Amino acid sequence: MEFSKILFQRMQSFNMGLPSSQQIEDFTDGMIRLLFPLRCGKEKMLSCLHEEWMRLCSLFVDMLSSLHNLPENETAEILSQRFFAAIPSIHEQLIEEAAHFLRCDPAAKNVEEVMLCYPGYYAIAIYRLANHLNRMNIPVLPRAMSEFAHSKTGIDIHPGATIGRNFYIDHGTGIVIGETTVIGDNVKIYQGVTLGAMYVEKSLQDTKRHPTIEDNVIIYAGSAILGGNTVIGSNTVIGGNVWLTESVAPNSVVYQKAEVIIKNKKRKTK
Predict the structure, then answer these.
(1) Which residues neighbour 101 within 8 Å (Cβ) at sequence distance 6 or greater?
(2) 33 HSE (CA, 13 A, CB side)
(3) What percent of the chain has pLDDT over 90?
(4) Rounded to the nearest 5 degrees, what angle is found at the Cα of 201, between the Cα atoms of 199 and 207?
(5) What percent of the chain lies above the pLDDT cut of 70?
């Protein structure tokens, strides 16, 4: 009991209110269902969408009301109206990206499969929502949504990152995209890629710590590209397991030279 009192006192000392993790997960998954209502059925879809829209608007206001440090002179209701007014344009971009996934992946049969089954697409969809909230200066919630996507997909995209159109993630597990990363249009990234900082230090909080990836770049599995001054020029291909801390000119091919030896393990007989 004594420890419970101490714990309670410490929790009271925190200066920022928070929505519950259950609310955040419900809202995040609910937004995905709202954007891609594939399970409602055609007959029920219109009523399903309207009911879910109203429920999520109310839930969003409740979550914002529990937060401290909202943008000055902005109420939870006004912020909710601004966020949901942006949903049609976010949805349009995500439909375009689903079609891009279909074009990129020979294993994909249709856009419905992409929306239902692809963890990379799921992570991007939540990033688009969280990034918009981040640009509205909503505290905590964008990061919590991104971490929920991270827990479900193994893909860690900071909501502060800037990512262009037609972003494609293949497989995706182990991808890390840092807060000040800038990614152009039509970029493809494979599993295990890190777009990170050279090192972690609190004094770097307000500086660009993560790389810039220009248009039409492909980054293969296991590569790490680090540093705020590192720029990967457009139309470049980065091979697997490459470690980069310096800029690369456009139209380059970067790869790690490795010797692979294949031997027949069967003994030769006379």
Answers:
(1) 108, 111, 114, 118, 120, 121, 168
(2) 19
(3) 77
(4) 90
(5) 94
